Amino acid sequence: MALRKILSDNHPVLRTPAREVAKINSGVLRLLDDMIETMREAQGVGLAANQVGVSKRILIADAGKDGEEKIIELINPQCDSAEGEEVGLEGCLSVPGAYGEVSRATELSVRALNREGREIKLRVSGLLARILQHEMDHLEGILFTDKALRMLDPEELQSEE
């Protein structure tokens, strides 16, 4: 495993839709492992492959609660349905120090491949639904700042803490 450099918001790879993964091979498995290590080091809760410079439809998310880590790995994820709506605060490892209010669905049904190449289906809600939508947007070349209803200024952030 190795740490990968997280690209910042002005990098063109972040603005380009990622390509589907045609075959899960050792390179994809190594990328997943590196993404987990990179996300942990950056203290994030999600990471898309294009954030580390690889234009492939791969994302990871930490679905753990109360400090317990539970990593979800999704290859070629697709959202089958989205329900509800909630505005919440988001930030991004590729846009350090910036936070904004973004409207997202509260529940999602997602299907993808796991690292073994088997199709998995997830029904998620709450924070995990927000994380997956944020990361799937990355795979389309969309940043949270594109969808933010408003960005928070530094004084507002301090009052949120």
Q: Keywords, please?
A:
4 helices; 34% strand; Peptide Deformylase; 26% helix; 3-stranded antiparallel beta sheet; 161 residues; 5-stranded antiparallel beta sheet; globular; 8 strands; alpha+beta
How would you summarize the topology of this molecule?
Elements: H1 26-42, E1 46-48, E2 58-62, E3 71-83, E4 86-92, E5 95-104, E6 107-113, E7 119-125, H2 126-139, H3 144-147, E8 150-151, H4 154-160
Antiparallel strand pairs: 1-2, 2-3, 3-6, 4-5, 5-8, 6-7
- Structural class comes to alpha+beta
Question: Which fold name fills CATH's third level, the topology?
Answer: Peptide Deformylase
Mean pLDDT: 94
Q: Which oligomeric state applies?
A: single chain
**CATH class group:** Alpha Beta
Placed side by side, the strands forming the largest sheet appear as 1-2-3-6-7
Q: What is the percentage of strand-forming residues?
A: 25-35%
According to DSSP, the number of beta strands is 8
> At the fourth CATH level, what is the homologous superfamily?
Peptide deformylase
Q: What CATH architecture would you give? A: Alpha-Beta Complex
Short note summarizing the structure:
The chain is of the alpha+beta class. It contains four helices and eight strands. The strands form two sheets. A five-stranded antiparallel sheet has the order 1-2-3-6-7.
